[in-house]
Amino acid sequence: YLAYDIFKSAGTTRWGSVGAARRASTDAEVNPGNGLGTGSQVFNYNAKIYSDQNTPPAGTYQDSVVLDVGF
């Protein structure tokens, strides 16, 4: 197990499901505010693995991330 969080863009705001942790169409890095279905948008995220945990064994780690998209 690796403890981690996902952050919006290159910032320090954690990605989540409520309040400021959510992202709106106007927050897109590419085509912000273009929520009309006429073009694509890009939302960048970064993951941070916390260093205050025991070093795990070498290997491949994976996880699933679930997100909701509202139209």
Radius of gyration: 15 Å
The biggest sheet amounts to:
2 strands, antiparallel
Which overall shape is indicated by the principal axes computed on the Cα atoms? elongated
How many structural domains are formed by the residues?
1
Uncertain parts: none
Give the percentage of residues in beta strands: 5-15%
Proportion of helical residues = under 10%
Distance between the termini: 34 Å
Mean pLDDT: 85
The largest sheet has its strands arranged as 1-2
Number of strands: 2
Count every helix, treating DSSP H or I runs of 4 or more residues as helices: 0
Structural class: mainly beta
Order of helices and strands: EE
Organism: Pseudomonas prosekii
Domain Spore coat protein U/FanG: 1-66
Protein name: Spore coat protein U/FanG domain-containing protein
Fold topology:
Elements: E1 4-8, E2 45-49
Antiparallel strand pairs: 1-2
Short account of what is shown:
With 71 residues, the chain is mostly beta strands. The chain has strands at residues 4-8, 45-49. The chain has one domain.
Write up what this structure looks like.
With 71 residues, the protein is mostly beta strands. It has no helices and two strands. Strands 1-2 form a two-stranded antiparallel sheet. Helices cover 0% and strands 14% of the residues. It has one domain (1-71). The radius of gyration is 15 Å and the shape is elongated.
